[in-house]
Amino acid sequence: MATTKRDYYELLGVERSSSEDEIKKSYRKLAMKFHPDRNPGNKEAEESFKQVSEAYEVLSDADKRRKYDQFGHDGMKSQFGPGGFDFSRDFTHASDLQDILGSIFGGQGGGVFGDIFGGEGGGRRRSSGGAQQGSDLRFDLEIDLEEAVFGSQREVSLPIAAECETCHGSGAKAGTSRETCRHCAGRGAVIQGGGFFQVRQTCPVCNGEGTILKSPCATCHGAGRVKRQTRLTLKIPKGVETGSRLRLSSKGESGVRGGPAGDLYVIIHVRKHELFERQGDDLFCRVPVPFDVAALGGEIEVPTVDGYAKLKLAPGTETGKTFRLRSKGVPSVDGHGRGDLHVQVVPEVPVKLNGRQRKALKDMQDAAEAGNYPDAEKFRQQAEEFFVKKTGLEGK
After folding, report:
1. Whole-angstrom Cα distance, residue 278 to residue 145?
2. In 10 A of CB 174, how many CB atoms?
3. Which of 23, 80, 313, 365 has its CA 20 to 30 A from that of 34?
């Protein structure tokens, strides 16, 4: 049986008017409470941890929060896709969580990151040798419906942190190297307290890296990376829709001191189309038809993604009559089949009539009978019944 998702504000225990700081403070408290490393083997705590992380992912982002406030959980479908929130894919605040939990887990965020993110993840990963994995990046790309139907190739230029060519990513000035941090003896963390209760904290001198720079590179100022315009080719497959995510492995920020690069996630947004409306893999199109063709029947041409198709109308085709053209919609993104095209017929009343046309319509009007317009006759009868009942009630 399907369960109803809890309200994000309720999950975090905050009001809808709460500030960003209040939301983060509440999330900090709950993340520390439910973190799996503090509740080993407790599946309920792990599930609660994921739920509050999902709530924080939405409410800490101004755009997502606005959509959630307006549309509720339905507004998040385009953000997280049909499968819903995926911790390993959608949680972009891993670095926030690592900072929040640093006082307990020594700046590493706890062992759960390897389990939930599957060895990858949204924040930087750091090895004991000081190497850091580059951050994953997100890029939102608007495309036309034609590109979503037929696929396309795009060239984009993005400012991405790349390895410094001067120091080759070390961050150190030429002829120098990083030195072991004396404060933590290269461990990256210090332990305070004694006996049974001890607190492991990130080293305040080296910020958890275990090494320090005395002579930083003049080009990157010790960062080991510099922002550089990077040109990328994006291949957009057939069938993508708004919310589709394209992952470009190792195309995110460069790693530091030998660490691997992060990934680039391209989020697709399909612009509205003047001719077609899309629902899933199906397309919908309203086609205006001369009223005489709708009345007498005939053949019309309707647009499809493959070109014009002929459609035969029977005499007396009504307004709103919908025809289904199979396999004339959008190709499935998984390559299996295509959607359908639904054509809705809308008879059009003629305008700018000349004298001969007016006379022809007048002759038709004079010759018309009630049976020629069954909907109008039915509507008139319903109105008469209404007024009869109204008169009876007023007489009581």
Report:
1. 9
2. 11
3. 80
Domains 134-169+222-271 and 277-386 share a fold: yes
What is the rounded distance in angstroms from the CA atom of residue 64 to the CA atom of residue 61? 5
Residue 287: predicted pLDDT: 96
* Amino acid at position 57, single letter: E
This prediction's pTM: 0.59
SS3 state at 182: coil
Q: String of b and e for 309-319 (b: at least 16 CB within 10 Å)?
A: eebebeeebee
Q: Can you tell me whether residue 251 is helix, strand or coil?
A: coil
207 φψ region: left (φ > 0), alpha (ψ -120 to 50), beta (else)? left
In DSSP terms, 302 is beta-bridged to 309
The Cα–Cα gap between 126 and 134 comes to 9
Mean pLDDT over 172-199 rounds to: 79
Query: What is the predicted pLDDT for the residue at 134?
Result: 87
Tokens, residue 9: 């504000």
Confidence of residue 2 (pLDDT cuts 50, 70, 90): very low
CATH superfamily, domain at 277-386? Urease metallochaperone UreE, N-terminal domain (2.60.260.20)
Residue 275: CB atoms within 10 Å? 11
Does the structure show a pLDDT above 60 at 224? yes
Q: Tokens 């209404």 label which residue?
A: 386
Question: How do residues 48-74 score in pLDDT, each as one tens digit?
Answer: 988 888 889 889 888 888 888 877 877
CATH number for the domain formed by residue range(s) 1-126:
1.10.287.110
Task: Return the CATH class of domain 134-169+222-271.
Answer: mainly beta
Residue whose token pair is 């965020």: 109
Q: Where are the domains of the chain?
A: 1-126, 134-169+222-271, 277-386
Residue 336 pairs in a beta bridge with none
| Interatomic CA distance for residues 251 and 245, integer angstroms | 14
Ranges assigned E (strand) in 58-188: 137-143, 152-163, 179-180
**What Å distances lie between residue 320 and 97, 203, 257, 284, CA to CA?**
53, 70, 65, 12
List the Cα angle 222/223/224 in 5-degree steps.
95
Q: pLDDT by residue (tens digit) across 304-333?
A: 999 999 999 999 999 999 999 999 999 998
